[in-house]
Amino acid sequence: MASTSSTSGTAVRRRVTHPGSLAMIVGGLCVFVGSVLPWISTPLGDIPGHASYLGWATMAAAPLAFAGAVLPFRRVAIVHCLVVALPAVVAGGIYLAQVVQLTVVAGAFPTAWPGMGLVMILGGAVILLRTAWRLRHAAERRP
Questions:
Q1: What is the rounded average pLDDT for all residues in the chain?
Q2: Which sequence ranges are marked TM in the entry (predicted)?
Q3: DSSP string, 62-118
Q4: What residues contact residue 29 under an 8 Å CB cut-off, 6+ apart?
């Protein structure tokens, strides 16, 4: 009787991670944590990121970076980087425009300034965009 557990060839192990996995985890973590920190700081108080739909959107998109980090496909990882980074860049741009508007309307410079959360989501977006760029160009160099 033939054994059903034997294999005819050697098993090939496929890596679960890719070269951008660590950077995607760090970028996703920056976007996720930055979504709940203050995005605008004023003398009267801070405005947290989750006070608007943009903070909730970036917080909801951030786990996609973690998912893309553990998938072994580079193209899927590139898409995950872009899906998380682009809403963070849009939200960061909108809030930076609000900081400039508050400063101009008040007529004094230290009226409002970007909070740590805004800096973190923009930093996370930069990390994710750089990772997508590196994964794209690493795929082109492969034979």
A1: 85
A2: 21-41, 53-71, 78-100, 112-133
A3: THHHHHHHSSS-HHHHHHHHHHHHHHHHHHHHHHHHHHHHHHHHHTSGGG-EE-HHH
A4: 62, 124
Question: What pLDDT shows up at residue 51?
Answer: 86
For 98, other C-beta atoms within 10 Å of its C-beta total: 16
pLDDT value for 140: 67
What is residue 51's DSSP assignment? G
- C-alpha 136/C-alpha 54 separation (Å) is 28
Q: Which residues pair with 42 in a beta bridge?
A: 45
Given a cut of 50, the residues of the chain with pLDDT beneath it are: none
